[in-house]
Amino acid sequence: MNRRSLVSRAAGLLVAAAVSFPLCVSAQTAAPIRIGMIEGLSGPFANTGEAVWRNLVWATERVNARGGVKLPGGNRPLEIVRFDSKGQTEEALSALRAAVDKDIAIVTQGNSSAAAAGLIDAIGKHNEREPQRQVLFLNYSAVDPVLTNEKCSYWHFRFDAHADMRMSALMSVVKEDKALKSIYLIGQDYSFGQTVLAEARQQLAAQRPYVKIVGDELHPMARVKDFAPYAAKIKASGAQAVLTGNWGNDLTLLVKAAREAGFEGSFYTFYGNALGAPAAIGDAGIGKVIAVADWFPNVPGKASEAFYQSFRQRFPNPADDYVHMRMQLMVESLAQAIEKAGSTRAADIAAQLEKVQVTLAGQTAQMRAGDHQFQQPLAVAVMDRQGAPGTKFDVEGSGYGFRVIRQLTPKQAEQPHTCTMQRP
């Protein structure tokens, strides 16, 4: 082949490559759509913040791998920008100001309902003052029901089931435990913890009025280092079960102390399926620790199994094993809303996010426009040894996993709301 033919063929190959890969090149070179993650990345709950970070990064990688978000001016990738709230509301508000200063129009937060309430108020005021720099708030974990009821906002979208929805799912199992006669309620002393215990009292009275509440207390959030005194009271009460909304180290230390105190009852939890809790409980938790979530690794189905295995391939360290389906659905919802809006303006995205419906790994969910509460499946699972029927996967390399015992459709999990949405 002569020199002229070689040059001609090489030029042809370059043209073909440009035609074959326009989306990937466009997405990689275009300015990213930045999402400000405001979360506690230091302090006692830093492990929960880092778990969020991994989930959001993995979700954006999926979108970017298929070419990014399609917009009229060309495809653009998603990018997560971290802001450390240190687990404090004032720090979260400071992080919001920093995000706005960087012209970030989408922020996300979740591991504190108190911080979420502060962000809703601050974003509402900011968007009125500066309509040209409006901000959208995506909430993946702050589950105080008030946030999509009395405090609902056009700019706020919650992608987790709120506390009352989770409690109803748990109660569907509690009410079938006919041997249960006494229960101990304990939680963190802030808005979410207070709400969980109040709802527990209400639902127990309605569905299991003969179950005696033998303890009902709140403890300081993230400040208790030794739960032995609480565990001693639980054991002395004669309770057959504990119900708690505790999360992070407050949950791990509580269940560990209860085990060491010789408590042999059940734990009904919102978050007992990870972040060290199963390993801390050990064999004592088999058949006794119950958790509720939007999804578990052992949810039946090939699509769900493949989804979980893909996450474990991306994050093989057992300590990183905490995947949240709702965070994946949240990012997919955002990408869909941006594409349908054809815009990155907060108001345009919000108008499409109100009516979004997404499916991933066999899970289908949609946003309810009336209160911006995501409607999705819920599941209740019980701790078991890995390898037992229905427990193919364990948690964090602990040797213990969660076997699904109840699945609720979005319609079964749905609850009415009291939101009066004020739209701009």
Q: Give the strand line-up of the largest sheet.
A: 7-6-8-9-10-14-15
Q: What distance separates the N and C termini? A: 68 Å
Class from helix and strand fractions: alpha/beta
Number of strands: 15
- Overall radius of gyration: 23 Å
Elements, N to C (H/E): HHEHEHEHEEHEHEHEHEHEHHHEEEEEH
**What's the helix count?**
14
Could you list the spans in which at least 5 consecutive residues all have pLDDT below 50?
A: 1-26
Q: Level of helix content?
A: 40-55%
Q: Percent of residues in beta strands? A: 15-25%
Main beta sheet strand tally, sense and closure:
7 strands, mixed
Average pLDDT, to the nearest integer?
A: 92
User: Which word captures the global form?
Assistant: globular
In short:
Helix content is about 40%, strand content about 20%.
Tell me about this structure:
This protein has 424 residues and is an alpha/beta fold. Helices cover 41% and strands 20% of the residues. The chain contains 14 helices and 15 strands. It has helices at 3-20, 22-29, 46-65, 89-101, 113-129, 163-174, 191-207, 228-237, 249-260, 277-281, 302-314, 325-341, 346-353, 410-413; strands spanning 33-39, 78-84, 106-109, 136-139, 156-158, 182-188, 212-219, 241-244, 266-269, 289-293, 357-360, 363-368, 373-375, 378-385, 400-408. It has a 7-stranded mixed β-sheet with strand order 7-6-8-9-10-14-15, with helices on both faces. Strands 2-1-3-4-5 form a 5-stranded parallel β-sheet, sandwiched between helices. It has a 3-stranded antiparallel β-sheet with strand order 11-12-13. Helix 10 (277-281) links the parallel strand 9 and strand 10. The relative contact order is 0.12. Residues 1-26 have low confidence and may be disordered.
